[in-house]
Each structure stands twice: as C-alpha cells, then as structure tokens.
Amino acid sequence: MTRVLLVGSEEVDLRAELFSRETARDALATFQLREPYRNCLELETISVGSATSLLNDLNWYLVRFVDEALVLEPSISDDEWLSRNLAAQVRDGDRNPAETDPLLKMYGVEANESGKELVEPMYVARTVDGVPEYDLRDVDETLVVRVTDEEFRS
User: Fold this and answer.
1) Name one Pfam family in it (predicted).
2) Which entry of 45, 97, 117, 126 is 20 to 30 Å from 76 by CA?
3) Does residue 90 carry a pLDDT above 90?
C-alpha cells in the first residue's frame, strides 16, 4: 500500500483544522488516520496515483495547514518517502522511479514524552557510500525524503 504523510505547520493543530472543514473531513473519511509524529497525519492509499489525487483534492487545506505532503511507494522504496512534486512526476510518467533517489531532504526524528517529532530538515545528495549522516543535532532516527531538483535548489 502507498502511504501519505501530512506534516502540519507548526502554528496549527493539523487534525483539528482538517476535521473542522467539511470538504476535508469528507475526503479523509474513508481512510484510517494515524499520527506517527507530532502534528502529522498518515494514511494508506492503493497507489501513487490515488495518493497524488487525494493531495490534489486537499490542496486548499494543504496550502494553509501543511508544511509538507509526502508519499511512500513500496515499489520505489520501502523507507524513503517522495515529495509531493516528485510523486506527481512519477505518476505522470515524467520521472522514472529508478531515477528518484539522488537528492534528499532528511528530517531528524526526536522522541520525547509526548511521542516522536520531526525536527530540522537538511538537504543532502546521496553519495557512493549511501545516504549521508544527519548532523544538525543528535537524533534517534531520520526520515528520508526524495525531492526534485527544484526542491533541492530552493
């Protein structure tokens, strides 16, 4: 199953904002939502196409309440997410799935008494040795996101 992760903006309660609006609530009603990180919502869909379609349906809310929308497609990688833009390029056939991995955005994951939280993203390029180490702070784990050239440069 393809997974979608919505990373809420720091100044909002993502779940409350989405479920206080009828259209977003209706769009999410058929999905089982999880909160793997503070102020993040995760759900499963059947494909990259359905994931990007859902994100397009929710775009008005994403612009206002979400910092990042990510897609995890197991046929591409079991543990590296795709940015929304990269997932759309794969869906549209503009990017070969095998060519999605050189440019990365890495989040640190910190665990505290209230659960796990995504912290301080950094941009890195994959090397011949693999994914560089996250070095912005000491963290328990990382969340790796494959990004487009444009996202990497911005």
Assistant:
1) DUF5804
2) 117
3) yes
pTM of the model: 0.95
* CA–CA dist 35, 66 (Å, integer): 14
Q: Which residues pair with 117 in a beta bridge?
A: 110
Q: How far apart are the first and last CA of the chain?
A: 30
d(CA 151, CA 154): 5
3-state helix, strand, coil in the chain (%, to 5): 30, 35, 35
Eight-state DSSP code of residue 95: S
CA 12 to chain centroid = 17
Whether the Cβ atoms of residue 55 and residue 43 lie closer than 8 Å to each other: no
pLDDT more than 70, % of the chain: 100
Locate tokens 């769009």: which residue?
A: 27
Gap between the Cα atoms of 113 and 100, Å rounded: 35
Per-residue model confidence (pLDDT) at position 114: 86
User: 115: alpha, beta or left, given left = phi > 0 and alpha = psi -120 to 50?
Assistant: left
